[in-house]
Amino acid sequence: MRRRQETPGLVPGVLAEYGALTRAAVERYLPAGEPRRYLYDLVTDYPRRGGKAMRPSLCLATACAFGARPEEALFAAALIELLHNATLIHDDIEDESEMRRGRPVLHHLHGVPLALNAGNSLALLSLRPLLEGQGQLGPGLLLRILKETVRTTRELAEGQALELGWRRDNVVGLGDADYFEMVLKKTGWLGMIFPTLAGALVGTRDPQLPLAPFVRFGFFFGAAFQIRDDVLNLVADGRYGKERDGDLWEGKRTLILIHLLGQAAPAERERIAAFLGQPRAARREADVRWLRRQIDRYGSLDYALGMAGGLAGAARHEYSQIYGGLNDGRDKRFVLELITWSLLRDA
Amino acid sequence: MRRRQETPGLVPGVLAEYGALTRAAVERYLPAGEPRRYLYDLVTDYPRRGGKAMRPSLCLATACAFGARPEEALFAAALIELLHNATLIHDDIEDESEMRRGRPVLHHLHGVPLALNAGNSLALLSLRPLLEGQGQLGPGLLLRILKETVRTTRELAEGQALELGWRRDNVVGLGDADYFEMVLKKTGWLGMIFPTLAGALVGTRDPQLPLAPFVRFGFFFGAAFQIRDDVLNLVADGRYGKERDGDLWEGKRTLILIHLLGQAAPAERERIAAFLGQPRAARREADVRWLRRQIDRYGSLDYALGMAGGLAGAARHEYSQIYGGLNDGRDKRFVLELITWSLLRDA
Fold first, then answer.
1. How far B141 CA lies from chain A's nearest CA (Å)?
2. Are strands A103-104 and A99-100 parallel, antiparallel or unpaired?
3. Given an 8 Å threshold on Cβ–Cβ distance, is B121 in contact with A157?
4. Which positions in chain B touch A114 (Cβ < 8 Å)?
5. Could you tell me whether strands B99-100 and A103-104 are parallel, antiparallel, or unpaired per DSSP bridges?
6. Given A117, A131, A158, which is nearest B164 (Cβ)?
7. Residue A346 above 90 pLDDT?
8. Is-cis flag, bond preceding A35, omega within 30?
């Protein structure tokens, strides 16, 4: 077990400030009407459990770094947070997860049918902040953000399809490039690319702003962030909010597991493949513990952390391409520090 | 078993013509890229199984009745058909259905996780026809149609939540009004209200067109249509495409079942409630047959069909409010004949 590391600097304060702004904005879009018991109690559950608010903070900080006020980008922050929570509901069903932000997953509380339906409701609700009262954006900017939202959900579904398909067919011959493609779509797009692009669109008011620099930045940052997340899943203490070793129980194709499969001796590799080929319910605690020990034995955690460090360096380079020419200030520095913070965080 | 009834008139020809137009348009929006096996093969499955194309035909005919050409409303017809197919994927999971358009449901072919994810992908894909190349609509009309799309998905989720919640909690004390509220949201909104409103918006080019007349028309028409669908489920021959008596196996709260529960003697009512309280897998063929006999004994089918006839009459009245002042022509007559056709159809 690793010890808690210090994460000094701007990040915790800005996350707290922008997180509070976002939560208040999200509340305004959560429906209060009927049917409450079968729908809106479920729809509002995950958004109210709270989270790090990293995605909306990245959006608000980028908008401000490009010269806007936080309130001008708040609709985009709310959109991002609502969409993120909608994907969590469906991902938890698809991944057969058990815990989310320290509580049982929604479909364990209400059953799969009602949880699935609530996820749909929340996903479409995420468009409300964009469609209601954003007249001052102008139609060009509004439609561009809408198109990027649709693009983001397309990437999300593609990334999730890859990960689920690999598990369903028990694919064990994956390389790092497969992992990075999946993570770009599943983590990078909604986590980093869309928030920074949306923030920059609000800040610049330029509907023609090119997408490519944000894809590069978000790819490196997102991959570094996700690898840290995968590591935390295996070393986390109580503050993590998901089940410890959940990724192993779920058979998730993390960079760590891909490294282990590439390094393990043939007999071990076969045993891992047999473990991964079982339905979740058939997996045994002893096998999960054995798998966890092989990860340490083959240095797969260290490999993954080393890779994350390199990716963070590339993300800092891409950061300078987007933010380098802007006036210095708290928001600009926050984005840079967030890259380092995401590698050091312990929850 | 009822015999096939003749459905003469305009309807089959117009459905064939507008259905072919819509299918060709839908094809243009279905993705051809990767990941094919884990995503886009699934996304394209239901849309290519074909259907009656009633919803998109209603949209195209309404647009033409209001003076547009079919091509001008084709984006809306494609949107409706894609969204309809997306909801079918998720509904089949939530309802534990087995057959769809004569073939096994998607989640039986690929598993729940990949099917759920494909449904998400298809739902967001449905916005593509609206967002790509509809510049000639103008931003006001485009945003209005987008808002009505989001409203429609909200109503769909509310209707589905009611129906699923009633089943999960084995609610047996429902009245006709509960059924009509659920059907307005679940069937009327995407099936009739949105298609006719979208068609009229394209035809009139008036972003301020009031919603209310379309809600009234779609409510009566949708309820009549859904009751016929519920009846067909219990009397259908091979052309129906879903499993015979599937609604009884699924424990669906149809008007027929609600009538039976209201009419049955206390001991029978108790037996029905016990049957409905079981998980689907525990239900036995003999019980389904017994339930089916009670429906005949208490005249619940005839009650439902009588109600459908009255609703269709009300729909014809509301039709005259919307279409009455328009120039006579094939498209205007088609919408009127569709109401009658939907009561006589046998598939």
1. 11
2. antiparallel
3. yes
4. 94, 161, 164-165, 168
5. unpaired
6. A117
7. no
8. yes
Contact criterion met (CB < 8 Å) for B113 and A146: no
Q: Could you give phi then psi for residue A103, rounded to 5 degrees? A: -130, 165
Specify the pLDDT at position B240. 56
Taking the C-alpha atoms of residue B194 and residue B191, their distance in angstroms, rounded to an integer, is 7
Interchain pair A146, B146: CB under 8 A: yes
Q: What is the ipTM of this complex?
A: 0.92
Looking only at the bridges linking them, the beta strands covering A99-100 and B103-104 are unpaired
CB contact under 8 A, B114 and A161: yes
Angle of CA points A30, A32, A35, to nearest 5°: 110
Comparing CA positions, the residue from B104, B80, B82, B79 lying closest to residue B93 is: B104
A201 in Cβ contact with A207 (< 8 Å): yes
Is the pTM of the predicted complex or chain greater than 0.95?
no
Work out the minimum CA distance from A303 to partner chain B, whole angstroms: 28
Query: Nearest Cβ partner of B38 from A117, A121, A164?
Result: A164
**pLDDT tens for each residue of A43-92:** 999 999 989 999 999 999 999 999 999 999 999 999 999 999 999 999 99
Write the CA distances from A152 to A25, A44, A87, A225, B131, integer angstroms.
Answer: 21, 22, 12, 18, 14
Q: Averaged over A154-180, what is the pLDDT? A: 97
* CA B31 to mean position of chain CA atoms: 24
Cis peptide before A139 (omega within 30 of 0): no
Q: Which residue has the tokens 């509580």?
A: A103
